[in-house]
Amino acid sequence: MTTVLVVDDNEAVRGxxxxxxxxxxxxxxxxxxxxxxxxxxxxxxxxxxxxxxDVRMPRMDGIAATRALAGVADVLVLTTFDLxxxxxxxxxxxxxxxxxxxxxxxxxxxxxxxxxxGEGLIAPEVTxxxxxxxxxxxxxATTPLGDxxxxxxxxxxxxxRGRSNREIADRLNMAAATTKTxxxxxxxxxxxxxxxxxxxxxRESGLLHPLADDEPAARP
Length: 220
Fold this sequence. Notes:
Blueprint: E1 2-7, H1 11-22, E2 27-33, H2 36-46, E3 50-53, H3 62-68, E4 74-79, H4 84-93, E5 97-100, H5 105-116, E6 121-122, H6 124-134, H7 150-160, H8 165-172, H9 176-190, H10 195-204
Parallel strand pairs: 1-2, 1-3, 3-4, 4-5, 5-6
């Protein structure tokens, strides 16, 4: 069972999100918070698998709360706004995913499952902008990759292409558990907070070519 904390300053929105999430047999909402400060306190007590986080809230906004929860909980940011400052702010703060509130119920439930598996997800509406902003086609490969092994570089490149752990394991002929270990080591060595940040770094470092215009954007 995947446990979820829902964070939104609008009570009606929180209630709607709870109804959607609890319609899935494998998801359980263990708490609700009205702002980021309350969410941080509740996460430390409840230890949810995923925090569904709004951005615009009083006292402490969702970006600050996500930053405070880095390394403590996996945060899926859900907002009405797709402004660049929110997208980039959420990802830099360590969010595991970013979705817009116009997402349908099925996609929202699936996103929570993806984040709970330790993978990342960015709303299709903003994926292209994120790639363009962090890895323009002419950018040189100037970002250091620390002391990654050749295998870890291969795994990082696949993360950058939006592949899940299972897909990476199949593509590189590795066991799923080995893939998960490689991903964990990559994040630790590079000082990254989330898989999404790893995907961005892979593109920024020149490990792979940016997506072609006719290639669908994949899940980070």
